[in-house]
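Check this.
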Amino acid sequence: MPPVPTWLYLIRHGVTAWHKEGRLIGQRDIPLDADGQAQAEAVAATLAGAPLREVVSSPLVRATQTAEVLARGRGFEVARDPRLGDWRLGPWEGRNTAEVATTPDFRRIIAAPDERAPGGESLRELARRARGAVDQILADNPAGDAVALVTHGAVIRALVLDLLEAPLESYEAIDVAPGTITAIAFAGAAPRIHVVGWTPSLGGQSWPRS
């Protein structure tokens, strides 16, 4: 018999007004807009049948709002872990995303993941703190459990690369939109990534199982 896995569902929070304005959010505490709330409801409907043991969230409001919808009616409170917070991008936060993405400084921190964002943190530091949260959650949850982590696109992208032991320089090769699900099973020596950035419909179809 194959080992029974522990499932992690990595949920990117729903969309905000700043996403629509094309602005980098980072540590800014921007709430979901109406579309983001609808995305949270779609994720919750999709995972309604998943036997979640806990929901752990970034402490930023856009994540906790999404997490509260997911945890509703499950009989436990949402846990908050600052290690799941968004990439700290210093003075870039609030600026136009497309403009920042083409600056030499941003290109440098993607090409050299140990280089820090100005006034912020490096991509390597982001990956390490997020992996620390995941490792603790796995240690606290035995085989057969399922846990949802509600976090941010940068965190999920860095975690997927870290779990695959892939270079962080491939960060931009992964796309994780707001309101999506990334599903990873942990059993034995290596994680098995089943899907990255899967978008539930607003009808809330059930989670596909393989």
